[in-house]
Amino acid sequence: MASDRIFGLVTLFVALAYIASATQIQTSFLSDPVGPKAFPMLIGAVAAVCALVMIFKPDPDPDWPVARTWGGLAIAVIVLVCYAYALKPLGFVIPTALAAGILSYQISPRAGAAVASGLGLSVGLFILFKFALGLGLVAFPKGWF
């Protein structure tokens, strides 16, 4: 019970800091009636409500994951941080294929399926983001073409 309450308290402080930082967003004269602050403040409010639920209604005896699960989570965090740093120099397709493949392999350790899902996700998401949503993504490193 104490671990849920401590995590809830930390989450509450982070949510309040998030809301406070959202109030600092500058609005332009051409903004919509709701403004750019509404969505971040809504996310912070939902996080604060969830934190209060954890503080006032914790689980009686939470089950902590085994060490192998913590290792898998650490690998996933490392992969996602490397992915964020690799996007700009390597383009979208290569880092997305690698990250999606590694994370897919963690979910189901079958190499063929992981490679196929990594390639499929990277190409499919690139097509969706570039052509359907009109984002300015670069597929590959600029020096390649």
From TrEMBL:
<protein>
    <recommendedName>
        <fullName>DUF1468 domain-containing protein</fullName>
    </recommendedName>
</protein>
<dbReference type="Pfam" id="PF07331">
    <property type="entry name" value="TctB"/>
</dbReference>
<keyword id="KW-0472">Membrane</keyword>
<feature type="transmembrane region" description="Helical">
    <location>
        <begin position="38"/>
        <end position="56"/>
    </location>
</feature>
<dbReference type="InterPro" id="IPR009936">
    <property type="entry name" value="DUF1468"/>
</dbReference>
<feature type="transmembrane region" description="Helical">
    <location>
        <begin position="119"/>
        <end position="140"/>
    </location>
</feature>
<keyword id="KW-0812">Transmembrane</keyword>
<feature type="transmembrane region" description="Helical">
    <location>
        <begin position="68"/>
        <end position="86"/>
    </location>
</feature>
<keyword id="KW-1133">Transmembrane helix</keyword>
<feature type="domain" description="DUF1468">
    <location>
        <begin position="6"/>
        <end position="136"/>
    </location>
</feature>
